[in-house]
Amino acid sequence: MQVQPPDTKRNPPEERIEDAVAKLRAAGTKGELAEAIASEIIKYSLYELQVIGGRVRQEIDKLPSPYREKVRPYFQQQLFDVYNRLMSMQRSGGFSRMNGKIDDPVLFVEFLDAVPDGCLKDPEHSGTDFNFGDPIKSLFYYLLCCFTMFVMDEPGHPVGTPFPGGFIVEKRADGYYCPIRDKEEEVPFSICNFCPAKQMEGV
User: Fold this and answer.
1) Which 3 state secondary structure label does DSSP give 93?
2) At 1, is the pLDDT very low, low, confident or very high (cuts 50, 70, 90)?
3) Are strands 175-178 and 170-172 parallel, antiparallel or unpaired?
4) Alpha carbon distance 145, 187 (integer Å)
């Protein structure tokens, strides 16, 4: 009996991304959205997570010092701390108590509309913070950012994230403020265009 090679065309990136976006789009509450995100995130193998982590480190290492050292823990927090938080809440059943509606449904739909092109249009130079070079790895990034911004209502870049010029993402009594919130419009797939943070004044 001849052994057939694995079917590499099964569930191509386009189909997986479209299916994930459709699943997120069907969510009616924050809890349902979080469950949908978790159901997609759990598909990533340990090997894939290690590859993603390696690519993140590689991209951070390209940044100039001392900015590189300052921003490294925040970029790691943006992905892997959020990943651990999502998985922990999913295992504990925390999403079942999140019955509130998504705060800005229009912006949420705009975000979902942008995800396929953000992953597929130019994988080497997508709107992510990291040039993953792979649509499925970019999807991982967008899924976690969706959880942060539309489930937890927190900025895509964690509070404290430094940016060139000495400014950081801040949490104030009236919400979150970011120095680059409105400055990424020329990057159509940047998460900044969908972030709940407000543009910091005078920056």
Assistant:
1) coil
2) very low
3) antiparallel
4) 16
Burial bucket for residue 98 (CB in 10 Å: 0-12, 13-18, 19+)? middle
Cβ proximity of 58 and 1 under 8 Å: no
Residue with tokens 């265009």: 193
pLDDT, averaged across the chain: 90
Residue 11: the pLDDT is 61
Which residues lie closer than 8 Å to 181 by C-beta, 6 or more apart?
192, 195, 197, 198, 199, 200
Helix or strand or coil: residue 183?
Answer: coil
User: CA-to-CA distance for 125 and 200, rounded, in angstroms?
Assistant: 26
Distance, CA of 36 to CA of 119 (rounded, Å): 18
Which residues contact residue 143 at a Cβ distance below 8 angstroms, ignoring those fewer than 6 apart?
20, 37, 40, 41
Tokens of 148: 């942060």
**Can you read off the two tokens belonging to residue 70?**
């300052």
Residue for token pair 């295992």: 91
Say whether pLDDT at 125 is over 70.
Answer: no
**Could you tell me the CA-to-CA distances from 78 to 6, 65, 74, 106 in Å, in that order?**
34, 20, 6, 24
Among the ranges given (45-54, 103-112, 184-193), the one the predictor scored with the smallest mean pLDDT: 184-193
